[in-house]
Amino acid sequence: MTWVRDLKKRIKYYDETSVKPPSLFLEQALRYANGTTAIDLGCGSGSDTKEMARQGFKVIAVDINKEVANYFSKKDRDRIKLVIQPVEDFKFVRCDFIYAKSSLVFLSPKKFRKVAMEIKKSLKPGGVFAARLWGKKDSDNKSRKNYKYTFLGIEELKAIFDGYDFLAVNEHEEDKACADGRDKHWHFLDVIIKKTQEV
């Protein structure tokens, strides 16, 4: 799904985020991550993807919007393979680290569970999954859009990833505008999950 349908607004957002430093959430997740292979689901303009590569990961960066290719140089492609495809259609491979900052929320609950199962299968033992998800108190959960997106409670998420170690669960709320300009109440769940064995 294209989360901002207006191309000009989307490119403006990518231009702004492409020059920002890597997210604090990624920095936290990378403290737990080991190995050499990573997948970035919903890579956008790539500041987080490039940080993973800088820290030694070979990264598969997945995004539905073809214009994100403009933010990756030829040099970036040495360690980053860009795949333009919806996350739910991506063919997962075995890897050590999977990162999804605000991309999986745009899947319907059915598609989210399908992708979650693929994530569980593709992570190697000791692998880490880090995601920013939306909680139940997010204002879009009360709108006509709620059937298209995934909103989770912590216990529901723990049931989906039963048998995995939850290394960090940070829940926070804030009021601020979306990338498309709408005012919104955000309810975030930042989770870092480790696969300790084959489940």
What key attributes describe this structure?
alpha/beta; 8 strands; globular; 24% helix; Rossmann fold; 199 residues; 8-stranded mixed β-sheet
Quick one: CATH class?
Answer: Alpha Beta
CATH superfamily: Vaccinia Virus protein VP39
How much is the radius of gyration in Å? 16 Å
Tertiary shape: globular
Query: Low-confidence runs (pLDDT<50, min 5 residues)?
Result: none
Count, helices: 5
Tell me which CATH architecture applies here.
3-Layer(aba) Sandwich
**CATH fold node name:** Rossmann fold
Number of domains: 1
Sheet of most strands: 8 strands, mixed
The secondary-structure class comes to alpha/beta
Helix content percent band = 10-25%
Structure notes:
The chain is of the alpha/beta class. The chain starts with 6 loop residues before the first helix and ends in a 5-residue tail after the last strand. Strands 1, 2, 3, 4, 5, 6, 7 and 8 form an 8-stranded mixed beta sheet that branches. It has one domain: Rossmann fold. Keywords: Methyltransferase, Transferase. It comes from Candidatus Amesbacteria bacterium RIFOXYB1_FULL_44_23.
Quick rundown:
The protein is α/β, with parallel strands linked by helices and 199 residues long.
Task: Give the topology.
Layout: H1 7-18, H2 24-30, E1 37-41, H3 47-54, E2 58-63, E3 80-84, E4 95-101, H4 109-122, E5 123-135, E6 151-152, H5 154-160, E7 165-177, E8 183-194
Parallel strand pairs: 1-2, 1-4, 2-3, 4-5, 5-6
Antiparallel strand pairs: 5-8, 7-8
